[in-house]
Each structure stands twice: as C-alpha cells, then as structure tokens.
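Bench notes, bay 3.
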Amino acid sequence: MIACKTQDIPYPVTQPQMHYTDLQNAEMRHNQPFALDIDGDGSTDFLFSTLLVGDPILQRDRLQFIAHSKIGTNLLNNDNDQSPVLNNGDKISLIQTGYEWFELSAIVLAEKITGMTEPMHWAGLWKYATHRYLPVQLKKNGKFYNGWIELSLDSLSEKLVLHKTAISIEAGKDIKAGY
C-alpha cells in the first residue's frame, strides 16, 4: 500500500452575483457624516460618523470614527464591540467565528487619543487600515445578503476614505471581500 498524505484544502467560495458601487474615494472627516446606500434602493443602509469624547478623569480626548448599522442592516461584532478588518479575498458568510451579526450596531473603527499627560496616539483595529474590507449584511424579506465596504483610515489627515462597496444579490451566499 502506498502511503498518502492528506491535507486540508479550503472549500472554494464561488462568488454570487453582486451589486457594486464605486464610492470614488469619498472622504469622511470630523462632523461630516457619510450615509451609504449599499444596494441602490434610495435608502440609507449604513452611516459613518465621528464622535469627540472628553474624559475628565483620564484627562484625554478621543476622536472616534464610527460605523453604524440600522434596522435591517447588520455589522459583525465581537465581545469587545469591534468588527474584523478583512483582506481582499477573505470569506464573508452568515456565520463568522468569533463574531455575531448585529442590527442597530455602532462600531468604533479607530480613535485618535490625545491626553494631557500622554502622547497623541491611535487605537482600534482599523487604525492602520489601507484598502481593507468591513463586512456588512442586509436583511430583506427575512433573507440575509452579505457584502463589504472597502475603507482606508488616513490618520495624518484624520479622515476615513470610502473606496467601493458591494452586496450580494443572492440571499444566504458566502462571498469574498473585494470580489
């Protein structure tokens, strides 16, 4: 008998039909929220905004860049209310290990922390994001549609750049970020 070596080979994700939107590198800065209609139906699905939070006890200010989902739209949250930073080709599915889809969610993508006794610095999973993908989901007629938003955070200019977005037009299908 000839010895054989087995290897786990990931099941390929075939991309369903998608609805794509070029956001033309839209910039979102402090006090300039950005509303996003991901499926082109004329209603806002996701909102990006900033929040300036003062902390008198720790004597610091935080400029937070936040992604919001609404009724019928979902963001992935982990136990720390963070959403994963996906790379091109990463799988987005109805079940994501370590995360849950949440409607009416607010995720702090990154924040600039300025303290009186500490140097200014950035915190959050998205603080170094350049052309990375935020997984999103829409719910319509009881069915779930997976999608992504391509984002970059420009910490020097203190802005979030929204490049492109896509949403599956086939319910319940796994997709690949960036495809």
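Next record in the batch:
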Amino acid sequence: MRATVRSRWSRTPNWRSEHAAELQKPDGWLALAGLEWLQAGENPFGSAGDNKIHLPASSPPHLGVLHLDGEKVTLNPPAAGFPQGFMVQGQAAQPQELHVDPDHDKNNPRMTIGPLNVYVIKRGGRFALRIKDAKSATLVGFHGLKWYAPNEKYRVTAHWAPYNPQKTYTIATLIGTTYPAQIPGSAEFNLLGKTYRIDPILEDPAVAKLFFVVRDTTSSTTTYPSCRFLYTGFPDHGLDQPGELVLDFNRLENPPCAYTSFATCPLPPPQNRLSIALPVGEQRYHE
C-alpha cells in the first residue's frame, strides 16, 4: 500500500496541467492587458489617442462610451456608431445599462471584438474597465509554471469548526481596496507537530467550494510574496456542522497578481499568515 501511495505522489497531478490551461485561455488571467478606472461622466474607449481609456492598437479607434453616473454604468455608441463585430454577451452591441456586481465579476456582461474581451468591474466603490487581449504579451510569452515536488506530508485532514452565525471579515486587496467576505468557519490542522487554524472565504453559497487565501514563510524566498490560493470542497458534514476537511497544500496556486500587474487580488487575513514553511505547490512565476 505504501508503494502505491508513493507512486501516486510521484506523478505530476493532472490538475497542474489543467491550471496552466485555464491561465492560457483567450480570456484567462494571462490575457489581462489593462485595468482602467472610470471617471464620472463620459469614458470613451478605443485605440485612438483621443479616448479616455486606451485599448490595444489592434482594436477599433472608437469602440464605445461608458457613462458613469453614481452607481450606474451605461454603454453608449461612439459618434460613428458601434463598429461591426462588437458584441455584448454574444449579441450585437446596443446602448444599455451594464450590470456590475461588487467584487465578483462572473455575471458582469462581456464586451468582445476580435481578440479583445472587456468588462466593467467594481472594487471598493469604484468602477473600472478590465481589458483582456488574447494576443497580449503575457499570454503569448507564457513560459510555463514552476512547482515544488508533491509531498504527501502536506496533505492533512483538518477539523472543521463552523461559525454560527457565519462571520463577515473585511478583506484587503493589493490595490488598496477592501470588501466584505463571508467566512463560514475555521479549519484547524496539525503540521510537523504544531497546530494551526485558517479561515476560508465562501464566494458563492450555491457552489460547494471554499477559498483559502494563505501566506507562509516561503513567501520571502520561493513563492509569490503576497499570498497563494487554496481551493477545497466542503467539509464532510457540511458547513454548519463540525466535521473534517482535507487541506492539500500541494494544490497551493498563485493568485492572478503573480502573473500580471492588472489584477486585483485579496490579501490573507491575519489568521491565514502562517509562521511555517509550506514548500509545496506553485512557486514564483517571474523567477
């Protein structure tokens, strides 16, 4: 049995290649090419120099106008009308108010033309246009990811202690904004003879996934300095009951900010800043 376990851990896990494939999608994090904050009033965007928001040179000179009025963002056409091929959620662009969720972007309408994919986001009460380009230098120049060798010692079973009621923490980000995050409980685990406790974020109650933002002492040498991410399923008895939760630190991955300066990544809360080295998972990308 031990030989079987050793063999399993010596193989390169499939999820590593899946993680790299996700990054390299035409609208993945490596395609991120800009983050432009909107100002009140008119925000014309396109590749021409007279726009407030400048898009890659391959884009149409004038793509559209984003009008910001308080909490409302409206897409309007430029003087010559929307260019041919400009789509909003797969439909030909029309003047419309754009739905924008705070801090989560899954439901925000995507505006596309050619290799370009842009959408409005909201961070800390401010609105910005996120720009993704399937021909971005970061995506075209992708040179592979670096990983520690898998180590079964860093796959641990944690005790899950629910918070009843669930807590809400204020999470800081690398760009200086904050947002409220739902914290359903804590995971307490023993590693190398010491006990630690970390708290996950529940991003979507309808999806059985917990999101840990963690930093350990390898951040000063071999891993991304700000944090790494760890995703898990729900505990064995659900979120509301004590139970067990598997934490496989071999699956620690870099946040989007490790690859591009245009991402807005959360920072770990104090309880997730560990005084131990986790020499597993993904290493620094640019070194």
